[in-house]
């Protein structure tokens, strides 16, 4: 059974924030590479974090490649050949932790993630679709070569970057989901989510569309909109805990909300500040609904 077929039999439980678990285990993620630094310096910590989510009931493990890019590694003094090996390692580590019991989603975060300044919550980088395509294509090629079950094109803040990612995906032979970061009914860059979701209509390579890294209430509201605007594609939602990231103070503020499983979601999990206990609660809820 392929990943798309598993979706049809879903819902599937995603993992939570990988960085959240790594920090809980004592990892220092203060640098610009964030969790991607551990691909080189402490791969065992990444396997342990993945394993924690597997034990919690996650059926999909997302690789530690969200902030792993060739330019980002180059800025840290890591040459392109080693950077490519680290991207492939991210898939191998997730596969090792999954032990045949979970799907592996290779994460590709937005251009703004590389900047490490909160730009993924704003978008509007001043780059053209062509420039963004040129940024994303090499990483997607490397990740696809590592044979994940699916590519997670995630935390996308605006339509232009989504267009670039869809172009960069062409011909890679790996299914993908496309997930926007939202504020209410709009992308972080201010475009209507309905227009964003409609980009994937008729694209067989995109097996799910939805939102992540947003308020839980916004995630629930996005489900029927995503299904309708995309022409009936499965919907993926994995919101934050409800807390808000301050890129200036590099800290979280606000009160976390309890996890929930929105009606109609085919892929459901958590993003920032959502750890294994919350994923276990989501898994319990999914099992209860399937009885």
From TrEMBL:
GO terms for molecular function: S-adenosylmethionine-homocysteine S-methyltransferase activity; zinc ion binding. One of its GO terms (biological process) is methionine biosynthetic process. Its EC number is 2.1.1.10. It holds the Pfam family S-methyl_trans. Zn(2+) binds at residues 213, 271-272. Residues 1-286 form the Hcy-binding domain. Keywords: Metal-binding, Methyltransferase, Transferase, Zinc. Binds 1 zinc ion per subunit. Its cofactor is Zn(2+). InterPro entries: BHMT-like (IPR017226), HCY_dom (IPR003726), HCY_dom_sf (IPR036589), Hcy_S-methyltransferase (IPR051486). It comes from the Bacteria. PROSITE patterns: HCY. This is Homocysteine S-methyltransferase.
């Amino acid at each position: 059974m392929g990943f798309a077929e598993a979706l049809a039999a879903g819902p599937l439980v995603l993992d939570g924030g990988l960085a959240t678990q790594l920090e809980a285990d004592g990892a220092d993620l203060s640098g610009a590479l964030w969790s991607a630094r551990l691909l080189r310096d402490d791969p065992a910590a990444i396997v342990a974090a993945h394993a924690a989510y597997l034990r919690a009931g996650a059926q999909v493990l997302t690789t530690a490649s969200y902030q792993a890019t060739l330019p980002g590694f180059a800025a840290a003094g890591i040459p392109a050949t080693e950077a490519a090996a680290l991207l492939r390692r991210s898939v191998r580590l997730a596969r090792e932790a999954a032990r045949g019991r979970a799907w592996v989603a290779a994460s590709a975060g937005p251009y703004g993630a590389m900047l490490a300044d909160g730009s993924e919550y704003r978008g509007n980088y001043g780059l053209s679709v062509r420039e963004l395509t040129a940024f994303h294509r090499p990483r997607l090629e490397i990740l696809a070569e590592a044979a994940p079950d699916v590519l997670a094109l995630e935390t996308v803040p605006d339509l232009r970057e989504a267009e670039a990612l869809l172009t960069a995906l062409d011909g890679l032979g790996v299914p993908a989901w496309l997930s926007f970061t939202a504020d209410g009914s709009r992308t972080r860059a201010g475009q209507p989510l309905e227009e964003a979701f409609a980009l994937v209509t008729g694209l067989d390579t995109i097996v799910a569309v939805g939102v992540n890294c947003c308020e839980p209430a916004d995630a629930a509201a996005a489900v029927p909109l995503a299904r309708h605007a995309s022409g009936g594609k499965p919907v993926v939602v994995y919101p934050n805990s409800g807390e808000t990231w301050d890129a200036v103070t590099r800290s979280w503020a606000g009160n976390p909300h309890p996890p929930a499983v929105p009606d109609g979601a085919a892929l459901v999990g958590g993003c920032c500040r959502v750890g294994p206990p919350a994923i276990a609660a989501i898994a319990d809820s999914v099992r209860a609904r399937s009885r």
